[in-house]
Amino acid sequence: MFGGILFSSIARRILFLNLLALLVLVSGILYLNQFREGLIDARVESLLTQGEIISGAIAASASVETDSITIDPQKLLELQAGQSVSPSVSDDLAFPFDPKVIAPVLRRVISPTRTRARIYDQDASLLLDSRFLYTSGQVLKFDLDAPDSDDFQIYDSISRLFNQLLQPGGLSVYREAPGADGTIYPEVMSALTGGRSAVVRVTEAGELIVSVAVPVQRFRAVLGVLLLSTQAGDIDKIVHAERMAIFRVFGVAALVTIVLSLILASTIATPLRRLSAAAIRVRRGVKAREEIPDFSARQDEIGNLSTALRDMTTALYDRIEAIESFAADVSHELKNPLTSLRSAVETLPLAKKQESQKRLLDVIEHDVMRLDRLITDISDASRLDAELARDDSELVELVKLLSDIVDLSLQMDRGKKVDITFDIKEGAKDSEYKVLGHELRLGQVITNLIENARSFVPEDHGRIHIELSIENDACIIKVKDNGPGIQIEDINRVFERFYTDRPADEDFGQNSGLGLSISRQIIEAHGGTIDVENLATSSNNEESGACFVISLPLMQ
User: Fold this and answer.
1) Closest CA to 359 of 371, 372, 343, 375
2) In sequence order, what are the residues at sequence separation of 6 or more whose Cβ sits closer than 8 angstroms to the Cβ of residue 291?
3) Predicted pLDDT at 549
4) pLDDT at site 551
5) pTM assigned to the model
């Protein structure tokens, strides 16, 4: 599973961004880490304290020369007979360093540490260096360079480069003093004036060296300077160990990040891959419905996407089936007038009598008009969905719409006088009967129902009654007539395409059978429903007839 996830573009992006964020965090920690600075400050304080102790021990080992008598030769030449001169002791009491006395003391206090100690006299000349102090029979040990191997050289180069990148700027380069001259060290010259001083330097290899200089004093007289310095790389080793600990934590965090990123990617990439594969199968499949994976239980964006794709695919398949069914119905309905038209055209040359020719021409004219009516209604039905989706919906006042349609229908005779009434149920104001939709198409539905009822009502006392009411946040429109009603076995078929059940006195082919089908299509596009029932089987049993019931959602 993880092999497929790693090759996923979204998985690689998640993994890269998470690791990049972790890398930036660790780089910031390494760059801004105060551990090095704190370690340097602690080492400086330690060396200063150590220097004070060692300088006190060295100053105590210095001896005063009190057994020398100084006589001025010039005074001896100036003596007269019988005169004498008194010997005088020098006023400059000196405390000279005796290396033979100081060396054992320095060796004892320096041996437990890895600190290098150097002693300079008042002229900044080197007297002693702990690096070269050893006793008789002592074995000298020196750190040898590691064997020159390619792996070691690569590691050493990387380590140096890394140290240089994170090394604090502005540090001077450490160099050994030529000969015994200590004047190149500013901390030594500062200590000769009686003050303590510390300097941090780096070697050419990038390793830190901390040096402190402490004056060696006795009775406030500066006898010399003690210079203490760390071994090259001591501080760097501690810092390196600290960095390695950070890198180990980074490695564990990176491993956890990779695993969690892959798990996260699997919860995103795998469902998307399955949805994409299903969409491709839907595009290629033409024989059967392809099932879209259901992730609706996730309650997230992928779950919403899965639900939307499933709904879209279901609507697409339903639309394809509707189109196929519509095409089959259209083909069947067009064949009938075409067959009749073809027969009449083929028979026309054979007709000898003028009366037969006229009858055949009437059949041809009737079939042509029937074809024209069918094509017009089919065209209207086929573009209905596109028009409803393209046109913007608006508020439709049903009271005004129904009143205008009733008034217009009363003015149309159609060869049959019909009483058309309109009634608004009490309990609601006229302004409350508002729905969101297309006024022209809703008017087409009501007009179609009125004209359909007009063709079934009796000639002498035909009645059509339109009733408007509000029930359960929906506008209810009822179109009732006093015609013969609908046969029970056909009541569920009246909304089928091309279904016709016309009165006996109506000429054949005057109706395409698409009116009620188009009406249902329009009402369902508005989010409503349309049904039909016989008045004889409804709650009102006073008279027979059909009742079409339209329900439209009320605009709040």
Assistant:
1) 343
2) 278
3) 92
4) 92
5) 0.46
